[in-house]
Each structure stands twice: as structure tokens, then as C-alpha cells.
Amino acid sequence: MKKLMVSLLVIVMWNCEEKKAQSYLELGTYRAVLEVQDDEKLPFIFEVASKDELKIFNAEEIIEVDEIEYRNDSVFIKAPVFEGYIAAKFEGKNLEGSFIKESLERVVPFTAEYGNVKRFYPGTGPAFNVSGNWETVFSKDSGGDEYIAKGVFKQEGNIVTGTFRTTTGDYRYLEGIMDGNTMKLSTFDGAHAFLFTALVSDSTMEGTFYSGNHWKEPFVAKRNENYELPSSNELTFLKEGYDSLEFSFPDEDGNMVSLSDERFDNKVVIVQIMGTWCPNCLDESKYYTKYYQANAERGVEIIALAFEYAKTEEKAFASIKRLRERLDIAYPILLAQYGTSSKVKAQEKLPMLNHVLSYPTSIFIDKTGKVRKIHTGFNGPATGEKYEEFKTEFESFVGKLLQE
Fold this sequence. Notes:
Elements: H1 2-16, E1 28-35, E2 41-50, E3 53-58, E4 61-65, E5 67-71, E6 74-78, E7 85-91, E8 94-101, E9 106-114, E10 132-138, E11 147-156, E12 159-166, E13 169-170, E14 174-179, E15 182-188, E16 193-200, E17 204-211, E18 215-223, E19 248-250, E20 256-258, E21 268-274, H2 279-295, E22 300-307, H3 313-327, E23 333-337, H4 343-349, E24 361-365, E25 371-376, H5 385-403
């Protein structure tokens, strides 16, 4: 909390300084760096197309940013949908400031160097090629914190791209290098700032995962081209004695919405458990929005239940409105919880579930109101083939329910 207050005080001081000539971002490329733990640096690249538009690059991902505000000698950059923002002061053509998430009271030191296009600086050539599949365990032997994942990487020269898939989703578009026997991968999307570092042999990895400057955990991995994660359709289920879902939550207009409403009678319904702060949920919402636009007239409905960490109901609904307007979402987004994104608290709102394991989670309900399938997590575009498999499975299953 103290760190957040100091950063916000600095911002106020910037804006209270004697008014100077207005500064703007230079057109061209910047190398940004976030300071995480252990003196590690998390780099990413962004390109300024105009003073009001820039693009953030993570491997194949391009994030277009058009919420840029200038105040005297400072700039405030906010990526689409998410709450987090960069507040920085101009140092010539360069920038110095912080990446801030106010609701979580998190502040990460930020700098950006103009004209630098290198994400990482390799010192030597790659000692190994990490292309392929890696059976991975995060926080191994740590009791309840241990979880499994699948690393999927492609390497060309010393450049590495890919992601880690977990049972609850993926770690976004990762991009980095192999430098000797060291792998470094990073991503920044305005919500999450991830850095992975690892020592690599021809068949093993041992490394650390950093999320911002508030979290780190170890991971180990071994090559296994045949490794697969458990089915996403078997991790979350209804408790014994239940065959349907019940809830009643408000929409932006204060209307209480439930599955018993006439709108959903004799419809196939997908209930999306999500949060506006969640990148995997954003990817899923983009896909669901396009699907709903093309198929609503066939008798399918989607309801999103938002579990928000915003500290007030007003801020939570503001985040929902921003997401809905950005993506042009036509299906209802209800506020199920605010003040915390705790999955334990979320499960209390939906007590018929064995647990809420992941944001997002999708619950498929047939025309009679019975739950037919629950899909945990979401394999987004960064997972390539798995993303295509999800879309095929989703459309096939919903199609069958519509025909019943």
C-alpha cells in the first residue's frame, strides 16, 4: 500500500509542477523494461504509430492501444479493457515511471528506451534448441501449490516463442531467446507481466516464473513429445444431487437476471465464469462474441458472470461496461462478486459446483435447463492447434444441443 501511495503522490507532483512545453511520445520503437524480483528485468517492445496510438508486441500478438493521455511532461498509457496503466515521465525521448494496478495496490518500476528494438540481449549463441513439448511442474513439492503444465515452444536461431498451457488456461504469447544454456521469455498485455527464466539441457529445464514484482515460483520441465494435460471437461463438475445451475445477479442497469427468466426458456445457454481483469477471459470473450453474433438466432444464449477484484460495485460495473463496449458484447454480463477474485468466494456464489478452479470456466446447459458439460479454462490463440481444437469442439457440442 505504501508503494502505491508513493507512486500516486509522484504522479500528483508531476501534474502540479509549473506547466512546461507539452511532451509527446516519439514515433518509432521503444524497448520497455519492468523490474521484477531478484534484479531480473522483464522487457517488451512497443511501437508508437501516432501520439495517440501504439502497438505492444508479444510474438504473434499485437495489442493496439489508443488510450494515451498526456499531462505536461508525463504520459499515461492504458491497454484495452484492463485496469492497469503505465504512468511515466519523459526523460528526453525515453520514459521512466511505473506500471500500476490500483485495485490490487501493485506498482512495478518501468522504463522505456527509444529506438531500441531488442527484447533480450543474447551474449552467445544457443547451446540447445527447445522446440517441442515439455512436461512441466510449477512449485514442485510445495504441497497444495504444485500444478502441472505443458510447455510448447518453437525456436528459430536463438529466438524462442510459445507458451505454457495449464489445466486452467495458458500463459499468453511468450517471446524471448536462448542465450547459451539460458532461456528467457516474457510477455506484457496490460494485465499480466510475465517473465520465465530457465537453465536448459537437451532434455530438462529448471527455472523461475515471475509475475510482476509480487510473485515468483520455481518450475521444472522435461522433454516429452507425447505429454498431454488432463481433459478440461473433467476438472469441474456438479456436486452429487444437482443437475442444474441456479443464480441471480445484477446487470449494469440493476436488473436481477437468472436462468429462470423467459429469455432463456427452451434455449441452449452457455454460462461464462470470468473477470474483466483476466486475459484468458478476454480471449474467450472475443470468440464468444463472434459466435453469439452469428448464432443467437438459432436459439443459443450466453451469460457472463463477472468476478471482479475492483473494490467498489461502481468500479466493477465500470470495468464491465468498458469490456462490453470494447468488444461489442451483446450478451449480458452480470456482476457476481466484487472486492475479490477469490475462487473460494466464487464457489460460494455457485455452491452446486465442486469448485471454481479457473477463470474462465464455461458451463453448457441444454434446452431443458440441465447442465451437460463444464469446460475449465481456455486455450487461447497463443496455443495454436489447441485453440482451433477448442473452437471445433465448442461449435460441434453446441450444435448437437441445438438439434435436441
